[in-house]
Input
Amino acid sequence: MDPTPARDAVELRVHGISGVSAERILDHPMVVRVAGDRHAGFFRPRSGSGAAVGAAAGVAVEAYRWGSLTAGAAVRTASMLLLLPFMLSNLAIWMRPPGRDRWGLLGILCRLLAGTLTVTFVLAIVGVTLDLVGWQCVPYPGCRAGRPYLAWLYALPSGPRLALLSVVPLIALQVVWAIGTRSTRAFEGFGPSSAQHTTSGTDDLDDAGFWNDERTIGWLRQIHIALGVGTLDVSLLAGISPGGPGAPGHVVQFVAAVGLLVLCVVLLGRPVPTSMAQGRRLLRPLWAIVVAVTALCLGTAVLAGARPSGSGKLPGYEGAAAGVVAVQGVLLIVLTAVTYARQRGGRHRAFLRGLGTPILAAAAVSIGAAFTASLVYRTADILDHGDIPDPLRPNAPVVGPLEPPVAYWWAALAGLAALLIGAAAASATLLLSRRRRHGLAASIIERDYPDASPEDAHRLRLVRETIARSQITEELGPVLLAFLVIATLGLATVALDVIGIGPTQLAAHVGAEGGAAGLVVAYLTDAGVWVISLLVICLLILGFRAYRSSQTRRLVAVLWDLGTFWPRTVHPFAPPCYAARAVPELAKRVTGLARAGPVVLSGHSHGSVLAAATILQLPPAVLARVSLLTYGSPLGRTYARLYPAYLGPPTLVDLGERIGWRWRNLWRDTDPIGGPIFADAPPVRVDPAAGDVDIRLRDPRSLTIDPADTVPPPIERHWPYHTQAAYQVAVAELAGRS
Output
């Protein structure tokens, strides 16, 4: 059957990650924008310049380019690297097991963990300003030597000095707020009307307001700012209290500051208000408390006068740093237990044992700890002229003790262990799976090229290796589970610091006399500090390169294309969700085009995920004229496994039913990203028409050299698909059926 498509049929192509150009999407040198703007737009070949490559007869081709939403402004892309822990914490909740979040327990745990990341961020700035600069460095001549800009701080009493330095954490909070607000401008105006429901993080993809996170972010941002300010208030009071934290001199102030933190925790645990007006009514008292408590604490510090710094760290800072990391470890353990218990009650065994949520949360916490430890250690290194104390070289009593918290020594040791064990687990997994992957590749080659000649042996080996490497994605589960266990245990060990036991002290207690065990642990801890510092420095270099180079900017954007697809419902400082614009904009364009004729929504790679989300947002009257073509798609291979509650097999079946199974999915065995949609799905009630969705393409198309060519057909892997005849046949068939 070779149906003739309608005259006004349109193929709308949606590209994948990395922000390719409209010219590449259409495979045409001359394009013109017909809708949208510089951030995201719709393009067609310029009139009179010929058709796009791969266009089916009688079908106009249009491209939607959304890559500039993540790979656009240099400042936005570079600054996003600093928001990596926040992004991962927000992504974690979307990997939860299927089923409703009873009592919202998973959401509460994820929001509490996100709150600890904000506290960690503020404590890092407090550690640099109030502790290292104001408390440890300024009072000591050796640290002030050659730094005239610190001399005037020495002239101030310790109370006013700490109050003045408290402005820096407040500015840091404002900067993080501004980054998110500035980055969101390209997405404004694409949400649902105010009458429509907005997401709470547990709705379905077809909910009218699923992609509008404005209300949730507005609520969470206020709470996180208040949480950060409250953390600063408690740290400031600890530094100026003569008897240390909780001393009788400032009981009222401490009660008020701690009460502010408790209030923020309570607000994080309650559901997001159903309306903006209700949220404002709750937040007005919160901000009145924030202003009053902060003014009280700053005023107390200014009037406190001088308190001798003495030796050691800022009072209370060591315990606060250790306490926050210990709380993170406990929350991760609880989150893991709750997630595992929920997935056990499901009908199907989930990928990663259903533990995607705690794995991503552990990654967020680990990277946050690495950022914090690196910032504090490297600042201490600079201030102390490269001679900071560590487990190997403690400072003499007469020297200014620029000592970072021992909690960061534990974090460094845990980070080094996670890297080494993770690398070993990855290597072992790849080696153990090598025979299985090569066996699968050999069976595919035997089926595809049964009449291969001996001259094709080298070519066959290359194809077999390519297919075997493309199967690595399925082997990463054990590595991620190992990382979760290591990260959780590493964070839990920081609890030892709360009772004053560091890595070297613990090794000395359990090791033999003579301190050999303590010395080994000291060397390992020192190495861990440098390793995580080098990793963070590499990220900073990457951010600088992203600011200077558009090529690097596109590379960084790949990470954000994957990590910022989902709305922000956990951490408000995460980079904005580009799908909040892309999906509504695509839905509006498809609706407009469908009025004139059939529309084939064509999505490559990650673009297929956007296309699927768009169809779930279309009204029934439009769906009758819409078809779906996906190729190189990770929907079945990755997204259905990682996000089973939102893009699992039931959702994909529902998607096919909505469009009457006018859906074709092209895939190759050599593709490391794309795969079949339904072939490997767990048993669900599926219409027999679903069997026609997946179309496997042999790659390479032939082992022999075509008479009109000089080399064998290439191994095409993930790109391109539109140049093959099967693509044009699929477009023509889908357009004719709409």
The longest helix spans residues 406-448. Residues 1-6, 193-202 have pLDDT under 50 and may be disordered. The longest strand covers residues 31-36. The radius of gyration is 29 Å.
